[in-house]
Amino acid sequence: MTATHTPRAHSAKYAWAGGLTVFAAVMLTIAGLLDVFRGIMAIAEDDVFVATPDYVFEFDLTGWGWVHLALGVVAVIISLGLYQAALWARIAGVAVAALVIIANFLSLPYYPVWSVIMIAISGFVIWALCVARRDDVGL
To answer: What are the boundaries of each domain within the chain?
Structure first.
């Protein structure tokens, strides 16, 4: 029996994969809640948001708020599935994190630092969900 096939190495592999899934779940929950709050602020037409003239991707503030609110709610629901290590949640988590990246890319000129932070969080979610194989997580 080689060192990589010992029961201890096998359990460490499961712990590493499970830890990445929990990391993705926590980060997706945070990103989802932040998107929910951002969406609510935009729907309420809060004075927090600035208007950038002459931007190619110009959106109505209320419509933009609904997009972020919907993405945030979906992200939180998917993160609940990730806490259960469900395969559907891993697949949907990658998809919704990609959509969050796109939505934040579109709002990059309005809030560059915030958008870059959200893009980075979503990138880590995608990485964490894709690096652990299905059989490593125990699905």
So the answer is: 12-45+59-137
